[in-house]
Design a protein that fits this description.
The complex is a heterodimer. Chain A is built from 15 helices and two strands. By secondary structure, chain A is mostly helical. Chain A has a single domain, classed as ABC transporter involved in vitamin B12 uptake, BtuC. Chain A has a two-stranded antiparallel sheet. Chain A is globular, with a radius of gyration of 22 Å. The two termini of chain A are about 15 Å apart. Chain B is built from 18 helices and 20 strands. Chain B is globular and about 75 Å long. In chain B, strand 17, helix 15 and strand 18 form a beta-alpha-beta unit. Chain B has a six-stranded mixed beta sheet, sandwiched between helices. In chain B, strands 16-17-18-13-19-20 form a six-stranded mixed beta sheet, with helices on both faces. Chain B has a four-stranded antiparallel beta sheet with strand order 2-1-4-5, with helices on one face. By secondary structure, chain B is of the alpha/beta class. Chain B folds into three domains: about 160 residues, P-loop containing nucleotide triphosphate hydrolases (Rossmann fold), CATH 3.40.50; about 200 residues, Rossmann fold (3-Layer(aba) Sandwich), CATH 3.40.50.300; about 70 residues, no CATH class. The chains are: A mainly alpha, B alpha/beta. The interface between A and B is large, with 44 and 51 residues.
Chain lengths: ~350, ~550
Amino acid sequence: MSELAAARPAAGPGPTVRLLTVVARQRELSLVIVMVLLGTFVATQAPQFLSITNLTQVTVLASIIAIAAVGEAMVVLTRNVDLSVESVIGLVAFVVADIVAHRILSVPAAMAFGIGLGLVLGMVNGFLVAVLRVPSIVATLGTLSIYRGLAFLVAGGKQVTLIDLPAGYTDPAGATILGVVPVFLVIAIVIVVIAAIALRQTPLGRSVYAVGSNPEAAEILGIDSRVVTFVVFSVCGMLGGIAGILWGLEFGTINATAASGVTLQVIAAVVVGGVNIFGGSGTVVGAGLGAMFLAFISNALVLLSLSQFWLQAIYGVVILVAVGLDAALLRRVQRSNARRRSS
Amino acid sequence: MTGPAAPDASGPIGGTPAIVPPAGRDHAGTTPGRAELQGISKRFGATQALDDVSLELLTGEIHGLVGENGAGKSTLVKILAGVHQPDSGSIRLDGEVVELHGPAHARSLGIAVVHQEPQLFPDLTVAENVFLAHAPRARLGTIDWGGMRRAARSIFEELDVKVDPGTLVRGLSMADQQLIEIAKALSFEARLLILDEPTASLSAHEVDRLFTIVRQTRDRGVAVLFVSHRLEEVFGLCDRTTVFRDGRHVVTAATSELTTGDLVRYMVGRAVSLFPKVESPVGDVLLEVRGLTRQETFNDVSFSVRAGEIVGMAGLVGAGRTEVARVLFGVDRPERGEILLGGQPVRFESPSAAMQAGIAYVPEDRHQDGLVLDFSISSNVTLPILHRMFPGLFVRASAERAIAGRYADRLQIRTTGVDQTVSDLSGGNQQKVVLGKWLATEPRILILDEPTRGIDIGAKVEVHRIISELAASGLGILLISSDLPEVLAMSDRILVLHEGAITAEIDRADASEERVMFAATGQADDRAVGVPASDDGAAGAVEDGPRV
């Protein structure tokens, strides 16, 4: 045993492991590179891809998904999942639009209320998972349904249409800064940056990674996983609230079924963005880029006039490739390490 | 963050002035007690892990703690680490009675623990693993990453270890992970440093560096508790040494006044329970193992098991016994060596291949690996032979019950019927169900891994009777056990493993607890040839000998 240990080469991973680690950790960079390559190709085939109108349209929707994906990424980092995010978006979108349409609150107050509502919905999720210890996939499957039910209850079959809303209310959805950068994209970038700094630079942020990476070791260090879990679900709900408000601005006409099916897009963005579905690794920058990437893929497929079948299938393949790549890289790192140890 | 061996280390936490005692071995009793444990008891279910144990750890002392598997060392470490709370007894730190509410609380009181199993975050960098709980902060309370990396680098330089603080822990060897655990403990000013088997996967050079650091830490006035299986390390490092046996304190003495012989004698001597060993004729060689090697677990292991023979396999935790069994059962694959079954070389790609060839393995943890607790006895017993239960599309319940009933009778499982759910049975009866399950595969070789751990004495005697009868019926049995009296009473031959190598093969007639323990602690060379361990000649030889 000891002679084997003595024969072990000096510590520090070999070049292969290093390279693989770098690739695995630089999902953000690889996403950007693939997006540029893809964009160039699509632009040669369908020049309208690069038109301001098209790019704005794509990024505005992607920004909303990206904001929700930031919250979802935090939840996934702790080995949990929030399936209720689309219902949070839908409920907040309707409630805020309804309040504004009926002139119950001023526009800023209605928006603040929407963010607060999202926060409360997230806290309910956090309470179920962290305090009552309901597995998150079950808890949020329940609230996915409950929150959607609430939306139907509030809406009562009505819908808020563009003409009910004050003039200019939905303008921010089309607004740009410097004539090119959509306001929604700026909001998404600000949120991604704040979240990235919080996760990277604060003790609570590091606890998110610690709890997801090794819950037992986190416990030994005195990190209370319940607090961390509650916080990430609350933040996820709050970001869902923001996404909901933007959703209302973007579509103008809102009913109780708003944002149905968005949860899958959000989780897809998180996974494609390189966040490990088993927790512990990944970044919110990746999740945000993942949302952009998927939006570009969809857009490109539409512009290339592919049938709906191919659109759905390719979308799915992209997700599988991203996750498969993660698993393969992880295995490679571990295997080369095992070789290193036994050589 | 101060480096671990900073010469100007000021007084430890708690307001007491810096105490720098002479770094000798003779100051015991003259310096104040850093940690005093009074009458600590701890029970887990049926097992009394610690029984009224008292221990004093002195400022500026390295205190060795040795004992067999199950002697209570790990429980004591976990109590001091705040992981377990004692059932009774008190802990004083620098004279003050403390209750340790949890690991974080223990750490805040200045108790640093290097756990046997590294508890690290694979997705975080080395530096962050060292400093996660007490990261250096920049302005605004944010984490100072540069400062963290520099502090980590200086600790690793101190340890003379080449680990890049910026790499992820995932992908590092066990040895590196162990060193990170040690760096973690050294990264804050501790007043009590506990090292639980810290050298298990370190190279000789790394062990030397660690010992130098531990001595420096002691000389700064830190109390050190060093738990080890390696007696030569205890003699090389510790000022005083305590021996535990069966959860009780046996002796504490200055290490210079002890010999290896003393230690071994203090460690063994567990009460023997009476069980029948049926003498049975030993037949042909069923299983032969030649030069079996699996990197970093065991090396060049050779032995044979004959029909009707019980071969005991003794050794301390981590000696590689279970690992050998896993290779024999096809769970893991060896790098070198061969396995012969009835004279034919075999190579198992999976446990089911091993099962087909007639090998059965009863694993150590019957809850995790052995039983489906929510199933009935009959469903559990027929699990490994499920394919035989399908005459058509569905499981034939009557056949299941018939087979289960046969083994329930043969093993005398006390039950209301074979449809009873396994979780309702006592530990001893559960163990019999596990045995029944593997016997249903009609094996030629039965590997038993700690078959009587955690079951009461009555059930134990019965399990021994069953093992004995199985051998008499012509099975070859490999009995892995940490229970020395059990190994001695049951085995026709005893193999002793130490750090992945067989250090002794002792016949039933020549076996004694001392001989086995000498071999299990790596002191085997001359002892195994028949000289009973009695005098103190071994101690000198050990101290002069090379460190393993």
